Amino acid sequence: MMQPSPRPPTSSAVSTAPVTFYPTRKETRSTCCYCGVGCGVIITSEGKQIVDVKGDPEHPANAGRLCSKGATLHLTTKLDARALYPERRLSRDLPRDRVDWDTALDHVVDRFADIIQTHGPDAVAFYISGQLLTEDYYVFNKLAKGLIGTNNVDTNSRLCMSSAVAGYKATLGADAPPACYEDIEQTNCLFIAGSNTAFAHPVLFRRIEDAKAKNPALKVVVVDPRRTDTAQFADLHLAILPGTDVALFNGLLHVMLWEGLLDMAYIRHHTEGFEALKETVREYTPKMVADICGIGEKDIIQAAKWFGAGPTLSLYCMGLNQSIHGTEKNAALINLHLATGQIGIPGAGPFSLTGQPNAMGGREVGGMANLLSGHRDLANAAHRAEVAQLWGIPEVPAQPGKTAVEMFEALKTGEIKAIWIACTNPAHSMPDLNPVLSALQHAELVVLQDAFNNTESNAYADVVLPATTWGEKEGTVTNSERRITRVRQAVPNPGETRHDWETVVDFAQRLERKLGKANLLFQYPDTESIFNEHRETTRERDLDISGLSYHILETQGPQQWPFKAGATQGQARLYGDGVFQTASGKAQFMRAVYKGTADKPDARHPFHLLTGRLRDQWHGMSRTGTLAQLYQHAEEPVVSMHADDMQRRQIKNGDIVNIRNKRGNLVIKVQQSNEVKPAELFIPMHWGSQHMQGLGVNALMPSAFDKNSKQPELKHTAVNVEKLQLPWQMTVMRKCNQPHLMADIRPMLAKFDYATLGLYGRGDGMLILRVAHKTAPDASLIATLDGLLGMVEGAPMLQLDDVKRGISKRILVEAAQVTGVRLIGETLAAEWLKQVMVEGAFTDAVRKWALAPLAAPPTGQKTRGKIVCNCLDVSENEIIDTCQMGADLATLQAKLKCGTSCGSCKPELLRLVNQYGKNHG
Asked: Which of 323, 393, 511, 690 has the fewest CB within 10 Å, making it most exposed?
């Protein structure tokens, strides 16, 4: 695969960014661009540069709080990894060249028009993102379904939220989360299922911690196979076997039925289908469920009593959604709320947590293959007619569009010829990646509209359309509690980037002319005109925002929907009147029965492999992966494994293993963990081929998907583990004083049996490359690496070469600072030399011992260990030492200041206090 030219040739293109006078320093209200909590932020900028960010104290989602990722957003705004100019290649065997916007868009228009006219509109597809703003989403959807005439527009939300959508619609009649964040303070039982909220939604978890502190009687139940930070916080952890959620929920309903905990009056007046469901759950006795789920009967009964006593608020996420039975899992949990009447009242309700900042907005505008604007269904002829009338077109196509997995399968077979990818990275995030990469490789045209040039998908793009990103965009987003926030532009567009909606509108107008159609559908001078049209599509729908405007959002702050014409505020909770968005007005119980996972462990693949999130990284790391300090809590990819499994297989901490199944393999280091049970493994989903040898854990996941939601089972597969012997080892550390060093080294990862590439430290930090191989590689490869590192003969460095023993070491010293380390054959000193590089000083002790085979610093000090508190740079070993002197959490916070900034580290601090504090043992 040819890579884009690193230095684009001179172009006549002229920046389209308007010339604007900016005061020396200004503040702009916006939102965080990571998870679906929807935190408000205040961006501080100077001229064209964002220089700081803080939580917005007036935003109801976070009241000023930010997590470790959100609090460092301003540090990710460097342009090193940005796509800044349009690029195009005319052949796959050529590099992309920089072109102007007219050339890029006319080329894509010509190719799309030719394919549409030759093969029909369903030969093209759009794969978009829950990170787009609502206005961006709206015009993409209208482009595909309104202008081109294809429903082949789907989104990465298909990978995370579509089962939540299907579950809500099947039971409550509409995709509308009925609860709100305020319910956390008002609940008596918090039931968290399939969500490591402490890592995935940290600011929301701070709210949970506060609620528990104010109300010690609040019961927290966590359902998760792993003993996560969230599970360790719980009063009751139900560590079920992977994929057994439906059995558990049916078992809880069985107990509630027998214990008289159901609200029979509510069931009679406001629901349908309970008698059929009762017959189903009759079988799910505590003993049967305990056997299926691998947990105790007493715990099942206790969880049912707490849930039934209420009010109970359920929070759930990917553990329920990313499953071939995701719709049933969601519906079985919602059944519990309906059966106990715990919905539409303070402190109660089934509350799906969205994973992306605007997955909700995308759902509102119908930006998926089976949806239409305003929560309408594509399969409904009346809904299609309504949207056609609103858009002023003859009809919306009835043929169902391809959903995410189907889309890339069709691209591989040639049914789809061209794909336009926006603001997402399917070459990393899709399941069963090898066929996906083959599809991208053989597609006739791949258009990538993105703000970053460092994603795996970038290599497959024939055309790159550079987009604006956080701090540069304008529009609206909707968070998990249906709250719409105005997003404002803080700094001008860098380079020749354009807003996503602008690119789509420009393309659409050109395509209209090319196809000989009237130039009528895309007359949008700004985002407000798009919002106003979107608003009209919601009128008299469940998400009615006919009373909302940019002016209200700007003067009165973020608002929840529905917000009807004439209203003075939005609605915090839904269904308080017991009327649902179904034909009968009654909620529907779903008969869900337990079925197993897509992949089942067997003698050849005896391990359950689970995936999930890290605390300080997000998605494929195109943004967080550019910031050194966000690697300090988890430096490199590892597989978490239980001590018993390691002992049986004679595996030690740090050993390298091969994780494999029929779809592929992953060579990775092992880390002992008590968070996983025997026969279970865990690998974070963030690491991909930009940071390791191999495609990442998603390549091993099945592409099998839920028949209703079409969401794939990205959470679980079955694998084997084989210990590898890779005697040749190398560790490289280099201060990041060359902006493209990481990109230059990345192609080398594939040349080794094992390799990881990451960052560490504060500020620009340092690059860390760790490598292992069966035999010594060709000397020319090391010479090339040394050249990139600036560690060649004549450079100011300490040097040791022992050819006979295969040892070669380089310690680069510049301006009395250790700025580079390259250790081959013997790498014991890597950890303390890393600390020397962070601290910088080249002391006499370092000079004397740097090349020696020492695993500990020569001064006798311990290495710091991983950084637990990223905000204030407090390490694990410092915390443990303080705990062993008798410190509790308050003492740690007072003495070391850890946990006093964003608070993301507080669950881990509590764990360390419990493990090493004065009462341990």
From this structure: 393
Whether residue 732 contacts residue 785, with contact meaning beta carbons closer than 8 Å, is answered with yes
User: Which pLDDT belongs to residue 842?
Assistant: 85
Averaged over 604-610, what is the pLDDT? 98
Average pLDDT for residues 717-732, to the nearest whole number? 98
Backbone angles phi, psi at 525, to 5 degrees: -80, -20
Q: CA angle, 102 as apex, 112 and 146 as ends, to 5°?
A: 40
Q: Where are the alpha helices (DSSP H) in 419-570?
A: 426-429, 433-442, 500-514, 527-538, 550-556
What stretch of H or E contains 464?
strand 463-466
Mean pLDDT for all residues in the chain: 94
Residue 68: CA count within 13 A, CB half-sphere: 30
The pLDDT score that the predictor gives to residue 238 is 98
Fill in the DSSP letter of residue 59.
Answer: -
- CA–CA separation, 812 and 817 (whole Å): 8
Cβ–Cβ contacts within 10 Å for residue 750, how many?
Answer: 10
* Whole-number Å distance between alpha carbons of 167 and 708: 9
Sequence-separated (6 or more) residues with CB below 8 Å from residue 266: 338, 340, 341, 578
The whole-angstrom separation of Cα 10 and Cα 33 is 33
Cis omega (within 30 of 0) for bond into 397: no
Residue bearing tokens 């060249």: 97
The span from the CA of 704 to the CA of 715, in Å, is 12
Q: What is the pLDDT of residues 523-543, one digit of tens each?
A: 999 999 999 999 999 999 999
pLDDT of 918 reads 67
pTM of the model: 0.95
Q: Ramachandran region of residue 347, left (φ > 0), alpha (ψ -120 to 50) or beta?
A: left
Rounded-to-integer distance, Cα 895 and Cα 581, Å: 54
